[in-house]
Recover the amino acids of this structure.
């Protein structure tokens, strides 16, 4: 004769087994989604950090000067100053906790003589190899400059572009 | 027939509680990454700083008399489409109100990068 004792335990065991299986399925399913979401989140943070740094650089230091450091950098092709300021504002150098952020900066203008689009490199903390997962931040700057050098000196709108990535 | 054994009901109940709470925790973790992904995706897609930047640079350069600098106008429009993939257009105008002898500057800015369309109509007071 079949022993019918402990039926409640049996039912509980089956229910718990099902719940554990469903839970394990959910958890495993979650990890596969996670990597895709993760890169978006850090991209967003990097983009905001970079555009904030560029915005700070495009603010004149005090009310007595009208030219921002970024305008000065583009006007003088001063890649060294760009590197100093940008790395300090993104906490790559300076005091306190540091970020492992690499950058490559250039500015783009439209040639006044033949309407071609040209990019001039400013500075880079490391050369691009093609494997980086970089984000791009940009900033419009108005400078009085000869672009290209054969053109007359006049007010021009140039686009400062910075590629940012983490090691 | 054996009597139904109703011992240890508390243990059974606690067992159910723990497994159900684990189940709901897993559900929450499962949803949280999707929420984080779609939130940051929409933050990346929305060109907030681009729109602010273009509006800032146009107004900054408008100057006091409000006319368009032809060279800067072409720079902004051509570089926008070639380097940012965004269609940008703007007009700047000055209106002089004779009764009050007062000059208004106003600007119309249009921006479209295929995902976001932004139109701005600004008048100086």
């Amino acid at each position: 004769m079949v022993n019918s004792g402990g039926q409640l335990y049996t039912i509980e065991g089956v229910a718990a087994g099902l719940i554990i299986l469903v839970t394990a399925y959910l958890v495993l399913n979650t990890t596969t989604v996670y990597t895709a979401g993760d890169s978006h989140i850090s991209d967003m943070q990097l983009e905001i950090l970079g555009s904030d740094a560029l915005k700070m650089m495009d603010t004149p230091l005090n009310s007595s000067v009208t030219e921002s450091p970024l305008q000065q950098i583009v006007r003088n092709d001063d890649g060294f100053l760009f590197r100093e300021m940008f790395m300090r504002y993104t906490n790559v150098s300076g005091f306190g906790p540091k970020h492992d952020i690499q950058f490559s900066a250039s500015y783009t203008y439209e040639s006044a003589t033949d309407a071609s689009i040209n990019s001039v490199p400013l500075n880079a903390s490391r050369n691009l190899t093609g494997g980086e997962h970089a984000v791009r931040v940009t900033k419009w700057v108005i400078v009085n400059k000869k672009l290209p050098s054969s053109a007359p000196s006049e007010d021009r709108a140039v686009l400062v572009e910075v590629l940012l990535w983490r090691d | 027939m054996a009597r139904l054994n109703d011992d240890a009901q508390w243990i059974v109940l606690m067992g159910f509680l723990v497994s159900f709470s684990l189940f709901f925790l897993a559900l929450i973790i499962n949803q949280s990454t999707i929420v984080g992904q779609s939130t940051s995706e929409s933050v990346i897609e929305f060109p907030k700083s681009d729109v602010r930047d273009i509006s800032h640079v146009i107004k900054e350069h408008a100057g006091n008399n409000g006319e368009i600098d032809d060279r800067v106008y072409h720079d902004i429009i051509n570089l926008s489409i070639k380097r940012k993939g965004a269609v940008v257009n703007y007009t700047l105008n000055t209106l002089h109100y004779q009764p009050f002898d007062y000059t208004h500057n106003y600007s119309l800015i249009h921006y479209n990068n295929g995902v976001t369309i932004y139109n701005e109509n600004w008048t100086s007071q």
